[in-house]
Amino acid sequence: MPERKPGTTTRGIFIGGPGHRHLMTGKVEKPKNVRGAMRRLWGYMRHQKRGLLGVGLLVVATTILALAGPYLMGKAIDEYITVGDLAGLAHMAILMMGIYVMMALTTWLQIYVMIAISQRTVRDIRKDLFVKLQSLSLRFFDQRPHGELMSRMTNDIENISNVLTDSVLQFISSVLNIVSVTIVMLLLNFRLAAVSLITIPLMVLLTKMISTRTRRGFRERQKSMGILNGIIEETITGERVVKAYGCEKKVIRSFEVANQRLRLTATRAQIFALVLAPLMNFANNLGFAIIVGVGGWMVLKGMATVGTIASFIVYARQFGRPLHQMANLYNTIQSALAGAERVFEILDEAPEVPDTPNAQPMEKVRGHVKFNNVCFAYKKGVPVLKNINIEARPGETIALVGPTGAGKTTIVNLLMRFYDVETGSILVDGLDIRQVKKHNLRRQLGIVLQDTFLFSDSVMENIRYGRLDASDEEVMAASKLANADQFIRHLPQSYNTHLSPQASNLSQGQRQLLAIARAILADPRILILDEATSSVDTRTEAHIQEAMLRLMRGRTSFVIAHRLNTIRNADKILVINKGEIVEQGTHEELLKRKGFYYNLYMSQFKSLPLQK
After folding, report:
1. Could you tell me which residue, 18 or 409, shows the higher pLDDT?
2. Sequence-distant (≥ 6) Cβ neighbours of residue 122 within 8 angstroms
3. How far is CA 361 from CA 66, 257, 364, 433, 435, in A?
4. What pTM was estimated for this model as a whole?
5. Using CB atoms within 10 A of its CB, is residue 514 exposed (0-12), middle (13-18) or buried (19+)?
6. Which residue in 85, 226, 309, 479 could disulfide with 485, CB within 3.0 to 4.6 Å?
7. Gap between the Cα atoms of 364 and 362, Å rounded
């Protein structure tokens, strides 16, 4: 039904959404506040102060040990090698070996601790993101391809994890190394240190010029990756339809367009990221050449010792190595910051259908439902429902009929409060549903759809989704009432049979019977039955109809069906066309009027064309 534009999910039941239409139409995102993203990441990390303190101490220890090596080497040259003191040289070599062993140990420990910190951090981010997604309205999911959301949940968070594990530690260590090496170089020989630092302004300028373009490039790459993931996810989900209509070439073309876009954006991002490293390497080697030239001249003039120059050369390499590492880190850091921004965008989304501050709990209801002058539009200016007025008294069955796209499913979406009405109100037992806690409201509602969604779990757990605290005996009792127990016991492992993805190891009718069992177990006061008996054989339909009658007994029921013979006994039939109720009454009353309903009925049972 075209009015099923929104994806609708409730208690594990799904109505397909249109997110895929937006796959190739998203606007290029503007660069966001990188400092803000870094502050948000720090907000997650600061809860692990003990671990961060430990990493900090280990980094300091590693840096001190790294500084000791070149100093001792210079001392060995000046005090032992030049005078031929082999015993002193051996003692110094053993000392240096011990220092490097300690340095390896502290390096391993800081990596180990940082891995633990990063994994706890991304665990918290992943949890917050998943919880946030559960709180967002269906309109949010309507406007975004599911694959793109999956990309944020997986790829972007994985990039954050990689950066926190490797890059952050390297960055901190590099900064500390640069500062400490600079101090030691100044203490060893102020003049030579001043000469060796000439290339730093060049390095800073190169970094600043390239970093902005690099960040933008990685944002575009992440967006392209999300689009490609959306196409892949949609194609795999709809593979049966693709093959049935011979559209393999069409989806391959769509994939190739997105794949080519990803190649181009990834190439640009990588070029900007990688060009910085050789430039920094050039500047570093230039500084090294200056040190060798000036240092050699100073030795010849008696202004420095050979040991000092040797130490200086090693320190210069230690100074250049972190700069080189920081240049290489732009690849992963920029990618991760772009991903972090995308994750935080979702975390900052405001729910469109929130509980009000004074929302009331709703206990067991009688099932009195009223729609008062309800108007609604998925897209502003394009009304889907206009002045809908409905009253369903407790225990009544209300049938919603009409052509495809009339607005029938939208009515039940509003009753479930997947969306809020634009004008008017919906009352349950006299309470405006906007003033009721959503969770309490939805526990009063049960829904059975044509496209029943079942999880890749056991049959038992899929039925138990209707009421999570139900015992196995209660699940089986509900299955018997739903006429599902017999076929379940013939499954390979009975109630413990694990369903394949999309429950493809069950027939359409069997899936609907499980949905009915789930609804019976939930014991709602208000039922929504949407196309529950279409696409099944006559015998299965009889089983479903019998189960439906048991389920509906004593409950307020809204039934949506194109097969009008299934709703002849409804207390009231509402005929909807173009978002308006054009007729209402019982089956017999509407046939006598020979209006819109009569034409629908006759077109089905007499093979007559629908009159306009």
Report:
1. 409
2. 157, 158, 160, 161, 164
3. 63, 50, 10, 10, 9
4. 0.63
5. buried
6. 479
7. 7
Q: What is the mean pLDDT of the chain?
A: 79
Phi, psi values for residue 92, rounded to 5° = -65, -40
Q: Is 246 left (phi over 0), alpha (psi -120 to 50) or beta?
A: left
Confidence of residue 369 (pLDDT cuts 50, 70, 90): very high
DSSP element (H, E) containing 427: strand 423-428
Element (H, E) at 582: strand 580-585
553 versus 24: the higher-pLDDT residue is: 553
Two tokens, residue 181: 């090496």
Query: What is d(CA 273, CA 113) in angstroms, rounded to the nearest whole number?
Result: 28
Q: What are the sequence ranges of the domains in the chain?
A: 28-189+328-351, 190-303, 369-606
Model confidence at 287: pLDDT above 70: yes
The whole-angstrom distance between residue 115's C-alpha and the CA centroid of its chain comes to: 22
Q: Which CATH class is domain 369-606?
A: alpha beta
* Average pLDDT of the segment spanning 92-119: 88
Enumerate the β-bridge partners of residue 423. Answer: 375
Q: pLDDT > 70: what percent of the chain? A: 88
Q: How far is CA 426 from the centre of its chain?
A: 32
Measured CA distances, 319 to 58, 97, 183 (Å)? 19, 21, 11
